From TrEMBL, chains A, B:
Species this chain originates from: Silvimonas amylolytica
A single MF term (Gene Ontology): transaminase activity
Domain Aminotransferase class I/classII large: 51-375
Name of this protein: Putative 8-amino-7-oxononanoate synthase
Transferase recorded as keyword: yes
Upper classification of the organism: Bacteria, Pseudomonadati, Pseudomonadota, Betaproteobacteria, Neisseriales
Pfam families assigned to the protein according to its UniProt record, in alphabetical order: Aminotran_1_2 (PF00155)
Keyword terms, alphabetized: Aminotransferase, Pyridoxal phosphate, Transferase
InterPro entries from the UniProt entry: Aminotransferase_I/II_large, Class-I_PLP-dep_aminotransf, PyrdxlP-dep_Trfase, PyrdxlP-dep_Trfase_major, PyrdxlP-dep_Trfase_small
């Protein structure tokens, strides 16, 4: 009865973990939620009184013109030469993954992905029939240059999250970005650069996006307001090479006509005054939690695992020195009131090491300490 | 470079018409916009002050529990036996079309559609590779029973808009709905019933949905708040047979994680107090415009075309007595400041008669009279 792609809809393991993680009393390192204290809560009364709100009728598929202008200006400041006409407002950046999948991927399309990679992107690519070319991302050194080039020779699309990658936390330095941009230009392979964590930089700004360094290769760049403002507003954006924009616009129209106009209005207001101040205010919350998890890992698991202290984003990527059944551990941990995410969920092939992704943004420093202590007692 | 489906992304004719139709000074019968005067404009200040708003964090893919309960209760009152667990909140009902396409349609899937049919659904089905089995919907008598049965023998999915169909305006009576439900049960073909216009009933309530009459066949029913409240909020819903819900939920998660929570909050408030009153208030606006277009058609085009006065929805479906090049007429009309939609856009095969779809909801009675006079002068 169903289309063949439905067989490729991956199991609900992650959904099950996240559902269990949201139970009261569970300390969750499993999800990727912003801190409750960091959420942007716009003053709706002020929105209403300050101006004639005009957001109730159908709107444009591409997004509100002023918002597109503001997004393009922010992107130019990051070093992406672009016009507002290349901007498509999205109903969250997950939608960009759906649209790019539809544009490029059918059964057998070879997609270069990082290993580990963002899970929901891999799931979408798989749904549309992708074959994967995984390139290992070392948590300290990133992708190996030679492996990347070899994969690129086969690839029809490359998907990268070079800035505070989910899950590894790795941030590609300038010279690596330059090398990758040159390789993509030579191969003529389209780049899909996913950049939702850029603003959550704890130890200095991230380097210019890779798409800003490309000379020939087609590209799609996307960002999100979910980590800096409020995920409940479901608003993100993509910016694309001009040859891709008309197709992506029609795909967006077929997906949901256009994005929520009230959210677009609220986000535009934030962009025009307060987004960067808001981010500056929330960074200390994240930095404190990041540091708390680093200290708790040292204290409780320092002899069992290795990790890098992330310089941005929402996650620690933890590798066990000895093989561990992380799925069994996950179940035991849930019984002990701690939710963790097994690392193999982020791979398209079985990984060499046992690993975990641990989210630090949604737990208080006290809960981080307590959760890590519980985890350690299970492992001993 | 692109997936093969991109070749099936239909041309931008309709987008071009709608863009031209939105130019200042153009009287537009081309789109499907609610009356500006009928838009629901929630009091955001009151929303803010009345309660602790909790809509900024990530939410559930299926939608807010209270809203799902309220939608299920409304559906039960229409004669659809269902629970809240079968409800999926959508980012507009266009998203339901995308999700159902993904669930059922791949290259060569045979889909029974009405002829004419809702354009954006046909485009989505085509994008995913559907082959069409069109069943002619007579504007007076609906689909022929025998033709429907023959098409059903081949079909793998049936897509119907039985209530104030876009574009024909036709509303299936009870006995036709019963016959179709029985035929679907016999054939075991899943029904996708699209029902966005039900509340816009000018001459009495519409009959029970077909899905409520099914005994065995799987089904998806969807509705929208765009016609009754505000399309800019981009919120709709689907209700599905229990065996389909887990797949549709995962497809929704891959498409945009979940729908806008502020919109869900605003719509829930409307459902809890005021939606039906709001609809009762706006119906006279629509009835007046519908009657104005009926009179203007009689006055200006009565000898050239045939039509049924629609008992609901947003459109007149007008058939020429003699062949007319409706695309040339559309261009001439645009130059004369009137936007119309050629009827062949709504067919998967070339239709037997020349026809137009004329929207009456977004123009004042004066503009309807003026626009129709201009159209008539072009035709003489």
């Amino acid at each position: 009865m169903f289309a063949k792609r439905i067989e490729r809809l991956t199991s609900s393991l992650v959904r099950d973990i996240l559902a269990a993680a949201s139970r009261p009393g569970v300390i969750s390192f499993a999800g990727g939620l912003p801190a409750e204290e960091a959420l942007y809560r716009p003053d709706l009364a002020q929105v209403q009184s300050a101006q004639q709100l005009n957001c109730w009728q159908y709107g444009q598929t591409e997004g509100e013109p002023q918002l597109r202008e503001a997004i393009a200006a922010e992107a130019r400041a990051l070093g992406i030469a672009c016009e507002a006409s290349q901007v498509l407002v999205l109903s969250g950046s997950q939608q960009g993954i759906d649209l790019v999948s539809k544009l490029f991927i059918e059964e057998g399309t070879r997609v270069l992905v990082e290993a580990p990679a963002y899970l929901a992107a891999v799931q979408s690519f798989r749904l549309f029939g992708a074959d994967f070319l995984p390139v290992t991302v070392d948590p300290t050194a990133g992708p190996d240059n030679q492996s990347f080039k070899v994969a690129l020779e086969q690839a029809q699309l490359a998907y990268l999250t070079p800035t505070f990658q989910n899950p590894s936390g790795y941030c590609y330095p300038d010279e690596q970005r330059d090398r990758i941009a040159a390789a993509l230009d030579t191969a003529g392979v389209p780049l899909f650069e996913d950049d939702p964590y850029r603003e959550l930089a704890f130890d200095g700004a991230a380097p210019q996006p890779i798409v800003g360094r490309l000379k020939h290769a087609p590209w799609v760049y996307q960002g999100s307001f979910s980590k800096t403002l409020a995920p409940g507003l479901r608003l993100g954006f993509l910016i694309a090479h001009p040859i891709l924009v008309p197709h992506l616009t029609r795909l967006k129209q077929a997906a949901d006509l256009h994005s929520n106009r009230l959210s677009q209005h609220l986000i535009l207001q934030a962009l025009q005054g307060g987004l960067h101040e808001h981010v500056a205010q929330i960074l200390p919350i994240y930095r404190e939690r990041r540091d708390a998890m680093h200290v708790a890992l040292q204290r409780h698991l320092g002899d069992l695992v290795t990790w890098q202290k992330p310089v941005g984003g929402l996650f620690f990527w933890v590798q066990f020195k000895q093989p561990v059944d992380t799925h069994a551990l996950m179940k035991q941990a849930l019984e002990a009131g701690v939710a963790i995410m097994p690392g193999d969920a982020f791979y398209t092939e079985k990984p060499a090491l046992s690993c975990l992704r641990l989210n630090f943004s949604h737990s208080t420093p006290q809960d981080i300490e307590e959760g890590m202590a519980r985890l350690a007692s299970l492992l001993r």
